[in-house]
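Practice set, problem 2.
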Amino acid sequence: MSATLEQLLQSGGNPVDMLRNSQLGAYVYPVVAPEFHNWRSEQWAWQHSAVLFDQSHHMVDLYIRGKDALRLISDTAINSTKNFRVNQAKQYVPTTPYGHVIGDGILFYLAEEEFVYVGRAPAANWLMFHGATGGYDVEIIKDDRSPSRPMGKPVRRISWRFQIQGPNAWAIIEKLNGGPVEQLKFFTMGEMTIAGRTVRTLRHGMSGAPGLEIWGSYEEQEEIRSAILEAGKEFGIVPCGSRAYPSNTLESGWIPSPLPAIYTGDKLRAYREWLGADSYEATGSIGGSFVSDRVEDYYLNPWELGYGPFVKFDHDFHGRAALEAIDPATQRRKVTLAWHPEDMAKIYASMFDPDGTPYKFFDLPLANYASSNYDAVTDASGRTIGLSMFTGYSFNEKTALSLATIDPSVEIGSEVLVTWGEPDGGSAKTTVEPHRQLQVRATVSPVPYSRVARETYQQGWRTGQPA
């Protein structure tokens, strides 16, 4: 019998120490070339012309079929499925019995009794566990994300998945289709024609402007990609590499990777015994200046991550009782932090001091160096008022940004301090070099930070308004 996460935790001491010193390395967006032009031009394109995102490799695809498929989803999601219909998609957010977020992803309602979940591993694992142990009449097929390092071996998925985004996206879409394409409601699915092939579509807007997510059989991906890039030439389309791609969320406001809140609690023991010692949860890492001996201090509830509008008590689900006991008005809220340019200059200047220890390296355009990132946010008195959780740089805004969750009393426009770098010279993670910490000034700003996204994005979980 293979080892489990629970066995690993029982033999390894404090889970925080295990996660802070994980040897996994950086979270990789695999297979897709790092850059096609350069990451600055690729960021610029999603706000000013058009961009082609390739999402075919970095997410788990979980195909769920059967008469209990919708019930499985409803029982594990804070979201309501009351009005969920075929040809719609929905952000899927599961919580533990204690009310803490496990992860999230997108659920596509493909056909009667047929769904696909697309997203990171934690929510997929939760669905698979309950599908296997909860007495549901379902069939689940897991198409795992592509290997982080294929080492020259061929990579194959069931489906390719692209997005065409940016202010010129719709002109490209209609040129590809050979005629008008209806701009369906947000997160509604349809079909269009590309290179003589019919592909499925999802009305999306990842960069703030109207766009589509499209997908089809993996064997057709190069033909489809070539057709999109050819049609988009006159509209300035730019293929986006894996270096720029994850940084788009800094402008649009989604925190991708909170720590799955599953490492403690008797109600989750069976789940930890089901998860392998090679699972995402067992091999993942925590990075950043916020350090606590209690792994529970890294757990977050839906309101802290901006998912409050999703919580619906019109159905029973794991964690409902715990969430009903929470007063949303007292919870930390999601914001963007705009980092002070002079302090950013200090970080980079330290790299050129041959006699001093540099500050923690700030990689561009994405500075995260762990699976889950937790930097302490403090006020002028040194009181911890929140957590900075996803950090990088926007060439569009010419600003270093991070997505954070902070005390609700802190107003937009306030100045706070983000401690950049880990204490005591850094942990043993492979992504961490010897360094010293710096307190960086940051301005509390809206989510989304991008004016384009803030003014045009679908009202809902990114904007903090009711959907």
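Problem 2, part (b): a different protein.
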Amino acid sequence: MFRLVLLLTVVTLAAGARLPPPRLDGKIVGGKPVKIEEYPYQVSLQSYGSHICGGSILGPNKILTAAHCTSGSSASSLSIRHSSTYRGSEGVVIKVASIAQNPAYNPFTTSDDVSVLTLAESIKDSDIGKPIAMVEATAAEGGRAAVCTGWGTLSSGGSSPLQLQAVDVEEVDRKECNKSYDGRITDTMICFASPGKDSCQGDSGGPLVVGDKQVGIVSWGRGCARPDYPGVYAHVAPLRKFIDKNL
């Protein structure tokens, strides 16, 4: 993932623009340790056997993640670990057979930040490994409470726990979030935050869930849990057309 960060930095400097950094290395701030039985749709996306991002199970052989997690990667370099509370052990590892990355994904704005992975084998449905439903394409925004899950450090620059973490966040008004980010919030983004709580780098690609439906994918943000900068998530509702096409 370092190469991706470096590439984005070089491109940014060349363009003379200030770009929002994607959340590449997976961190939950202000959360609590949980077990996979509580969030059986959560998976770890791995590159050459090392955790790089989160993801969610959509079907027996389909995984939803962020486009910035797959950009520049070959399917042969990726695998997922499912049915595990712990980031690097237990559960089952399955190789990725193919990557459907949204062609509309824009690395400069992080808009349309979604990929659908097809696995080489199917996941056997169980209490610790099962699909999550997606929010309807027509779902209304506003006033929602959500939970975000992932592995990673508990604070910016801190140590990474092995156990899955979960954090509760609240939806932030689109206009307010857009103002915080100087107009960078597109229709394929939504914002959630709570004081001292946030997803962070490396939770990237992981699920943001309201009730029993996934509404977002961890995407980007300025810092982690900063009061003036909510977490920004890929907005599943308007991305359903692309996702459904690749299921």
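Answer key, part (b): The chain has a mean pLDDT of 86. The helical segments are 2-15, 67-70, 174-180, 236-245.
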